[in-house]
Design a protein that fits this description.
alpha+beta, 157 residues, single chain
Length: 157
C-alpha cells in the first residue's frame, strides 16, 4: 500500500484505503463492494486508470442533450475530448445521477436559460458543460453498460 501514499494526496482516499490495509483476508471484490461509487470514481482518477477501465473514444455526448459538445475550446481552437476526459465526464455524470436519485431529487427537472432548456444532471470538463436530458438517462446508462461489456446489457434485460 506504499504506492497509494505516493499517488494520492487526498486524505479521504488514504483513510478509506487504510481501512482495508489490515484486512488481508478480504478479496478485492469484497473491498470494492464496501466502497461507495464516489470513492471508486475518485480512486480511478487518483490512480490514473481511466483508459484501463473504459474505452469511450466513440462515445457521443450529443446523443444525450442537444446542448452537449464533443469538444472543448483551447486557445481558440476546437479540441476533441480524449478517452480520459470522456471517462471523467461519464464518472461525474454517473455520480451526479446516483446522488440525485438516492436523495429523491426530481430527475426529470430541467434548467431554463434564455428560453432554452438544459439538463440539471450535468458536469463541466475543460470549460464545456455536458449533461443528460431526462429522457436520455436510460440510453446513457445502456451505452455505458455496453462500453463495459456488450453482453451485460443482454444479461440485465
Amino acid at each position: 500500500m506504499q504506492r497509494v501514499d505516493k499517488i494520492s494526496d487526498n486524505p479521504f482516499l488514504l483513510a478509506k484505503i487504510n481501512e482495508f490495509k489490515d484486512k488481508e483476508s478480504l478479496e478485492p471484490h469484497q473491498i470494492l463492494s464496501r466502497l461507495s461509487l464516489g470513492v471508486v470514481a475518485k480512486l480511478i482518477v487518483s490512480y490514473k486508470v481511466q483508459n484501463k477501465i473504459l474505452e469511450l473514444k466513440t462515445f457521443d455526448f450529443r446523443k444525450y442533450s442537444p446542448s452537449n459538445r464533443n469538444f472543448f475550446i483551447y486557445k481558440n481552437t476546437k479540441q476533441g475530448f480524449d478517452n480520459i476526459d470522456k471517462v471523467n465526464i461519464v464518472l461525474n455524470l454517473l455520480h451526479t445521477l446516483r446522488n440525485r436519485a438516492c436523495h429523491f431529487e426530481n430527475l426529470l427537472k430541467l434548467r431554463e436559460n434564455n428560453n432554452k432548456l438544459y439538463p440539471r444532471i450535468s458536469t463541466k470538463e475543460k470549460g464545456t458543460n455536458i449533461g443528460l436530458m431526462p429522457d436520455k438517462i436510460e440510453e446513457f446508462l445502456n451505452d455505458l453498460i455496453c462500453g463495459i461489456n456488450k453482453d451485460l446489457l443482454d444479461y440485465i434485460k
